[in-house]
């Protein structure tokens, strides 16, 4: 089964590690850097819910098409 993932990405202000959080799931207010333990705030924007809804619909369509063609 194929699943599409959309990441919210940022750089840890503590050590510079690239951080990624699944944007289509419930986006938390912060995430913890696995390397240095710095708590990194996720800057929620007012239009994130609308963007997430649009991306979920598009991802679902891509998954349905890909999984229909994928051999079992």
Report on this model:
This protein is of the alpha+beta class. The chain has one domain. The chain is built from one helix and four strands; from the N terminus they run E-E-E-E-H. A two-stranded antiparallel ribbon has the order 1-2. Strands 3-4 form a two-stranded antiparallel ribbon. Strand 1 and strand 2 (18-22) form a beta hairpin. The longest helix is centred in the C-terminal third of the chain and has 22 residues, at 48-69.
Explain briefly what this protein structure is.
The protein is an alpha+beta fold and 72 residues long.
What keywords describe this structure?
72 residues, alpha+beta, 4 strands, 31% helix
Q: Return the string of H and E elements.
A: EEEEH
Q: What is the strand arrangement across the widest sheet?
A: 1-2
The percent of residues in helical segments reads 25-40%
* Percentage beta strand: 15-25%
Which outline best applies?
elongated
Q: Counting H and I runs of at least 4 residues, what is the number of helices?
A: 1
Counting DSSP E segments of at least 2 residues, the number of strands comes to: 4
Mean pLDDT, all residues: 91
- Total discrete domains: 1
Radius of gyration: 15 Å
Distance between the termini: 8 Å
Describe the biggest sheet? Answer: 2 strands, antiparallel
Structural class: alpha+beta
Unreliable residue stretches: none
């Amino acid at each position: 089964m194929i699943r599409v993932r959309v990441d919210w990405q940022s750089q840890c202000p503590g050590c510079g590690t690239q951080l990624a959080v699944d944007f289509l799931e419930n986006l938390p207010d912060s995430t913890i850097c696995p390397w240095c333990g710095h708590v990194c705030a996720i800057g929620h924007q007012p239009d994130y819910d609308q963007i997430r809804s649009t991306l979920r619909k598009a991802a679902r369509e891509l998954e349905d098409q890909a999984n229909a063609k994928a051999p079992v």
